[in-house]
Design brief:
78% helix; 225 residues; homodimer; DNA-binding; mainly alpha
Amino acid sequence: MTRRQRLEEREENILDAAHAVFAENGFDGAKMAAIARHADVAEGTVYLYFKNKNALLEAVIARFYARLTEGAQRGVTGTDGTFERLNFLARYHVEQCMAEWHILELMIGLYRRMQDYEDRGYTFNKAYVAVFDQVFREGVARGELRGEVPLSIARDAFYGALEYSVRTMMLRGGGKTRARRAASRAIDLFCHGVSAHNAQAEVSGDIEAVTRRLEAVARKLEKRR
Amino acid sequence: MTRRQRLEEREENILDAAHAVFAENGFDGAKMAAIARHADVAEGTVYLYFKNKNALLEAVIARFYARLTEGAQRGVTGTDGTFERLNFLARYHVEQCMAEWHILELMIGLYRRMQDYEDRGYTFNKAYVAVFDQVFREGVARGELRGEVPLSIARDAFYGALEYSVRTMMLRGGGKTRARRAASRAIDLFCHGVSAHNAQAEVSGDIEAVTRRLEAVARKLEKRR
DNA sequence: AATATAAATGAGTGACATTCATTTTTTATT
DNA sequence: AATAAAAAATGAATGTCACTCATTTATATT
């Protein structure tokens, strides 16, 4: 076994230990001594591999994200149709986050402690949401999604809604079935909105007239397809 | 001045001090010694009023929420129409959260540290979102909102999307104007969804939404020519 | 085998949250 | 007003950890 391999194996061991101890005890509750013990390593050794407790947590979360991203990408590739893909992404996200709820909690707490969001914590997130971005852009290109919705707004709405749903779910102690249903409903809402179709706001000025005229043009345009 | 008043004033002082020091330094960076100094009180005295650092943060956040709730309730009462109210709530939420971004960050971190969500941390949140719930229920009753969307899903989507938007905004360093626009777009999405099938500009005087829709139609026209 | 370099160790340090024996202030009683 | 009793306030002392660093141990190079 080469030196390089030995070092990498140790790093893995430490990460595994940290993952377990963090998940069990939360960030503050996790003692570096416990992590070192779990990894069969002296306390000082941990600091040879990771600058401090925060960096350790970051590494654990980065690994989590890498796996998450891989799974999302694979799933999307194996699914056809924009809405099916969105649905898959939502279910997948909810399932994974529920399964690794402790890690998710740690992640939420991490943001607060990081001074330099952009450089580090934001990057693993980026690779993950890129999967969504790709699906969304393709949906727009196919004319299935409204192109005038800014991507960043759509992305925030998608993941923001799901994350809150997961939180609610975990607090209420729902199982996988409930989670799946919640994800499904969240997607329905994401796609079609809350507005009832027949509802029309009252008309009280010039702008409304313009709007209705515009909608008439838009409808004609759609029919001509 | 009665005894009761003296004690309450001190508690207020300590809360003010804690608010300032937490906002400035974050949770870990805030030293109890500094908070005590700020409040003109001995270190031990703080512990006569609050069990520990966490309880202190909780109290600060509870006060923040109480004010937030009051403002939201007042604004909703002074606004007519479901969509106008949703729009107000979104803008208000985004503005307040951006103004007190530090507190929001602390709050996010708080969840992680609390063992007993339901009993404490979740309660102040509850009073706040009740304002949204009321607007939503009324919207359904009036036939303006789709009644088949579960309230908890709608609520999570609403606040989840906004919170992510605020976070994105803060990371990118946007100002009040950008925040307002983001809130507006988030609401448009919340109301009408991403699906192109039932795309429709909000008929409520939102010139931005109308403009965006117009541009979308124009783009389609160009392509088809 | 001798030397140089890289890794690992764990006792020690410092920073802080929290406690508690003591002091000060307030209230009640005569 | 004087005294006792109770309530508040104090800050030095304590304990817990994250993190460091002088030594020791393992590995590579000659």
